[in-house]
Amino acid sequence: MAFDLFLHKGAFIWGCSSKPHSQLDSHSGGLTDNLRYQLVHKCTILSVLAQKAAIPVEDEKPLVHSPPDDNALLHIHNKGFHKDINMLPKPLTSIDVSSSASDGSKVRVAYQGLPGAYSEDAALKAYPKCETVPCDEFEAAFKAVELWLVDKAVLPIENSIDGSIHRNYDLLLRHRLHIVGEVQLRVNHCLLGLPGVAKEELKSVVSHPQALAQCEMVLNELGVDKIGAHDTAAAAKTLAINCLRHNGAIASSRAAKIYGLDILAEGIQDDDANVTRFLVLAREPIIPGTDRPYKTSIVFSIEEGPGVLFKALSVFSMRNINLAKIESRPLKQRPLRVVDDSNEGSAKYFDYLFYIDFEASMAEPRAQNALGQLQEIARFLRVLGCYPMDTHV
């Protein structure tokens, strides 16, 4: 059968990929300690300067040289604090084609966001000793892999509360990367504040809109204003830089450590069963096996007709293959199709792409046979990847 030839000699040519897994390293410890010291010191300077005119200083000894004025003193401390923040990795942009040289001792993993983002947590869960590379947008992470700036990318694809990240489904089709793994990460939202601030003092909280919505009960009890941000780590960074006492942020515990903030409350999400699933992307696929549970992701389109989608899905059911996920997206090349040219008006339907995750390895004959039969029905079919399932949340 033509598909069998395509399967064995065409797109499914598997390449090896293996990296060691060990415990999370703490490469940013010295920097974060210094950040925390600078943050506390900066806020102390602000407080002292605000009160200096009203509180006399006893036994103040004269200086040989004239001391700098208050603005100059504050500028010195601000400069030092910002210098430490700027030592953190800068996010790559979608048009950035430069990269610092890697010594090859660590796998480089791209993610969307700033240091301390949940996506970085997912990257470190997949590759505990990796060098994480922040990117400003999802597509920049795809391009970073394609341009060999990084080895892998870890990107969110769905959340147990908010559903699918449609942008990344569309990018999977636009780019020719392969899914080589998945990471399921439990989301633990923390309320962060400046050192020494109690949560009752907060008047506003900044974070990603989804994080704000997922912590609505706690935020309503505090009676704070909700301010949207690009992502949770960006909210933490903004709070640390601006040093506004009555502002808080929702982010991860790692973000608190990185930006020198206090955790005022932990696990503040409304639903404890809050899990985000991430995909690990690479330039080459991996060799599928049968030694552990595997998942295969595909995308296909079909001709319109009675029962065609049912026929397409039944190729898995008749082989006892479980469908873990099905997602439909409009086919952008031909989004609308006229199906009735009557005088009363033309009825139009969307044409769709169907993304499916099924729990079987491409090393199994039943998976190969299912895709062989699906190709006879589908107008378009592409395997996005076959990879080990993440069974630990």
Automatic annotation (TrEMBL):
Its EC number is 4.2.1.-. Residues 297-388 form the ACT domain. It catalyses: L-arogenate + H(+) = L-phenylalanine + CO2 + H2O; prephenate + H(+) = 3-phenylpyruvate + CO2 + H2O. Pathway: Amino-acid biosynthesis; L-phenylalanine biosynthesis; L-phenylalanine from L-arogenate: step 1/1. It is an enzyme of class 4 (lyase). GO terms for biological process: L-phenylalanine biosynthetic process. InterPro entries: ACT-like_dom_sf (IPR045865), ACT_dom (IPR002912), Preph_deHydtase (IPR001086), Preph_deHydtase_CS (IPR018528). Keywords: Amino-acid biosynthesis, Aromatic amino acid biosynthesis, Chloroplast, Lyase, Phenylalanine biosynthesis, Plastid, Transit peptide. GO terms for molecular function: arogenate dehydratase activity; prephenate dehydratase activity. It is found in: Plastid, Chloroplast stroma. Its main location: plastid. It comes from the Eukaryota. One of its GO terms (cellular component) is cytoplasm. It holds the Pfam family PDT. The keyword Chloroplast applies. PROSITE patterns: ACT, PREPHENATE_DEHYDR_1, PREPHENATE_DEHYDR_3. Residues 108-283 form the Prephenate dehydratase domain. This is Arogenate/prephenate dehydratase. It comes from Medicago truncatula.
